[in-house]
Amino acid sequence: MFPARRHRATAVGAAVVLLVVAACASERDVPEVPTVSIPPAPSPTASPTPIPEPSPEPTFDREARSIDDPASIWVVVNKLRPLDPIDFTPPDLVTAPVSATNPATMRAEVADALVALFDAARVEEGIELQSQSAYRSHATQSTIYANGVAANGVEYTDRFSARPGHSEHQTGLAVDIGVPGGECSFQACFGELPAGVWLAENAHRFGFLLRYPDGAQPIVGFDYEPWHFRYIGVELAAEMHEQGVATLEEFFDLQPASDYAD
Ligand SMILES: [Zn+2]
User: Fold this and answer.
1) Which residue in 90, 49, 41, 99 sits closest to 70, CA to CA?
2) DSSP string computed for 85-113
3) Which of 2, 93, 118, 241 keeps 20 to 30 A from 17, CA to CA?
4) CA 37 – ligand 1 centroid, Å
5) Residue-wise pLDDT tens digits, 129-150
6) So which residues are the catalytic ones?
7) In the chain, what are the domain boundaries?
8) Ligand 1 mean position, distance from CA 136 (Å)
9) Do the Cβ atoms of 69 and 63 come closer than 8 Å?
């Protein structure tokens, strides 16, 4: 027992001496240590940061407006979805104060959006646009369709011209857009003009949809019409643009409408 005790006493004594020496040294020579900047230690990645509960994505309410009511800006009209009533007349038709070859008649909300669209094309790109056809009554569409059939037959006419009651132009929400001078008016080549390119890329910002995209005939029922824009409101247009969904039929999970039922 004794030897062990003696060893411990010696060790304690040595420790005290060392401490005193160290203390004296630190008082005498104040830092001559070159300062070295030490990068901050990386925050430990392994620390269990709690993964937040995925907050539910705010989902777009597809039922916020009717797609059946012809007075709704979301109404879907195609070869399988006639307007109801078939001779529907929009409630608030006005003439949009824009360059036009035919009366730029359309619903008031659409007129405001069209003015903003045309202004933006002019300001942003120096592009002048023109309304070439807008609201068409059931009677007018009947005449247009009948003339088409008389000249070219039913099959050909149905590719380009809606039967009365099936035209978006009867809703007061559709506008055929061209350029002053009429270059490529109502022709596929309009889509390649600067005006057509700009419209395809920017119409959604103002609530318009290029309603009959290239290659979508089996879904929408009409050949490519880069001039035909349908007002659906900024909210829906932005959502479709963001999702990359090109047609109303796909967005609302509707039956493709390549042709009339009868
Ligand atoms: Zn049209």
Assistant:
1) 90
2) STT---SSEEE-SS-BSS--EEEHHHHHH
3) 2
4) 70
5) 999 999 999 999 999 999 999 9
6) 225
7) 93-251
8) 10
9) no
CATH fold label, 93-251: Muramoyl-pentapeptide Carboxypeptidase; domain 2 (3.30.1380)
Residue written as token pair 């390549």: 258
Q: Kindly report the length of the chain.
A: 262
The tokens describing 217, both together, are: 């005939």
CA–centroid distance, residue 64 to ligand 1 (Å): 26
- For residue range 199-233, what is the model confidence (pLDDT) as tens digits? 999 999 999 999 999 999 999 999 999 999 999 99
Residue with tokens 């230690």: 41
Please state whether beta strands 208-210 and 174-178 pair in parallel, antiparallel, or not at all (unpaired): unpaired
Cβ burial, residue 193 (10 Å; 0-12/13-18/19+): middle
DSSP code, position 257: -
Which two three-digit tokens encode residue 237?
């247009």
pLDDT at 42 (0 to 100): 58
